[in-house]
Design a protein that fits this description.
This protein is an alpha/beta fold and about 260 residues long. Helix content is about 35%, strand content about 15%. It has one domain: Alkaline Phosphatase, subunit A. It has an 8-stranded mixed beta sheet with strand order 4-3-5-1-6-7-2-8, sandwiched between helices. α6 packs parallel to α8 and α7 runs antiparallel to α8. The longest helix has 19 residues. It starts with a strand and ends in a 21-residue tail after the last helix. Bound molecules: zinc ion.
């Protein structure tokens, strides 16, 4: 039977930031899921290009969005949300960075909630609370929850791996734990990031910027497994497969392995 999927993206969360944030659920993720803690994002390691690659499973050179300013694709590729909706799946977006509105074309989302990020508003928590209520009321097939405070309040304002950065990651993981504990049966949770960071920025091809975590928790993923490999381009392919939807032929990613078997 097809799974339903919740994809949570914590902006700018490095794998070592996840593991060192001090939240007990960070360690629990490695016990209850299959985790790729050296997965790779794409160049440039910048928020909108990386999200476009996540949702379209190609490199930025192919989709053409090379900065945080969206431009229409020259040779459009059907994205994850567009494909899922075209196959009758109910999709929703909860996010606090408005540029992400262009990750799918109009008319493909059942519900979309933007709470713009303002520095004191605790929008990661507000979005998480709203997503939990929506999941329980509407049981979407696919929900994307984007938590943006880690990047801006954590990394850019205070430096990647600084004490405040780790606190903001801790807060995001607290949100993820609450979401996980309130998930109805039949959901797979995937937690990832768009890029890492170093000093007070990102965008380079340094390992600190390029390495991201991907943690998959659900009935198809073996618990307590850590695997090498994994790419941000693998996520759309994996989500579509979990939902029983055929992939778009241009997509370049691979299905993340459902069992502990390594090649
Ligand atoms: Zn970002």
């Amino acid at each position: 039977m097809a799974e339903k999927v919740i994809l949570v993206l914590v902006d700018g969360m490095r794998p070592d930031g996840l593991m060192q944030c001090g939240h007990p659920f960070a360690k629990k993720l490695t016990e209850i899921g299959t985790c790729f803690l050296s997965a790779q994002t794409v160049m440039p390691s910048v928020t909108l290009p990386c999200h476009m690659s996540l949702f379209h499973s190609v490199d930025p050179d192919r989709h053409g969005i090379l900065s945080n300013t969206y431009v229409p694709q020259v040779r459009p590729i059907e994205g994850l949300v567009d494909r899922l909706d075209n196959r009758g799946k109910k999709c929703a977006f909860f996010y606090n960075w408005e540029e992400l509105r262009d990750l799918s074309r109009p008319d493909h989302l059942h519900t979309s909630l933007l709470i713009s990020e303002h520095k004191t508003d605790d929008t990661d928590r507000k979005l998480t609370d709203a997503a939990i209520r929506y999941i329980q009321d509407e049981t979407p097939d696919f929900l994307f929850l984007y938590l943006g405070e880690t990047d801006e309040l954590g990394g850019h304002d205070n430096g990647w791996m600084s004490e405040i950065y780790l606190q903001v990651v801790n807060n995001a993981i607290d949100c993820v734990e609450r979401l996980y504990e309130n998930l109805p049966a039949g959901y797979t949770l995937i937690l990832t990031a768009d890029h890492g960071g170093h000093d007070r920025g990102h965008g380079s091809d340094m390992p600190e910027d390029m390495t991201i975590p991907i943690c998959c928790i659900g009935s198809k993923f073996k618990a307590g497994v850590s695997l090498p490999g994994g790419s941000i381009k693998d996520i759309a392919v994996t989500v579509a497969d979990l939902l029983g939807v055929d992939r778009v032929k241009e997509w370049e990613g691979k299905i993340l392995p459902y069992t502990a078997e390594t090649e």
